[in-house]
Design brief:
The protein is an alpha+beta fold and 158 residues long. The protein has 5 helices and 7 strands. Strands 1, 2, 3, 4, 5, 6 and 7 form a 7-stranded mixed β-sheet that branches. β2 and β3 form a beta hairpin. It is globular and about 45 Å long. The N and C termini lie far apart (55 Å).
């Protein structure tokens, strides 16, 4: 009975940008040789999405005792999973009345200097935007569209 009353599962993920050699890179968590993901987590019912993302980033990448001030800025993407299968879409297909998951991507501003603690079995990699562009075979449909989603921003290299 509880399964039928459940709402759409909400997840939030952070897009962390860094600048390396005057090129924007996205920080990704790599598991194995070919699986990449953005840091994020599921949002509990009634929980604020921004606070959930900040807490998740602190739990995932924060070091014990250190406080990182995550600057969660703008929503840059919405993705929908219509059923319990892997495909996700940047829209709700017209024949779906109750999607199973709503995935929201937020741009996260990093402090000038930060040290991360990477979870066991993961590597933290900086992938340049030109490598992500149109590379859904290597990074999946969500990560490979980040260059288009981020193209509306102007980058200032300091």
């Amino acid at each position: 009975k509880q399964w039928y009353q459940r709402r759409v599962r909400g997840t939030v993920e952070g897009v962390l940008l860094v600048h390396e050699h005057n090129l924007p890179h996205v920080l990704l968590l790599q598991l194995g040789t070919s699986f990449f993901k953005l840091p994020g987590c599921e949002v509990r019912p009634g929980e604020d999405e921004i606070e959930a993302l900040k807490n998740c980033l602190s739990e995932t990448l924060g070091r014990n005792g250190d406080t990182i001030h995550w600057g969660v800025d703008e929503l840059i993407g919405n993705w929908w999973r219509p059923n319990y299968e892997p495909p996700q879409y940047p829209y709700i297909p017209p024949h779906i009345t109750k999607p199973k998951e709503h995935r929201r991507l937020f741009l996260v501003r990093l402090p000038d200097k930060a040290m991360f603690a990477v979870p066991r079995n993961y590597k933290l990699v900086a992938a340049p935007l030109f490598e992500l562009y149109d590379n859904s075979n290597g990074y999946g449909p969500v990560i490979s569209t980040l260059p288009q989603s981020l193209s509306r921003f102007n980058y200032v290299y300091a």
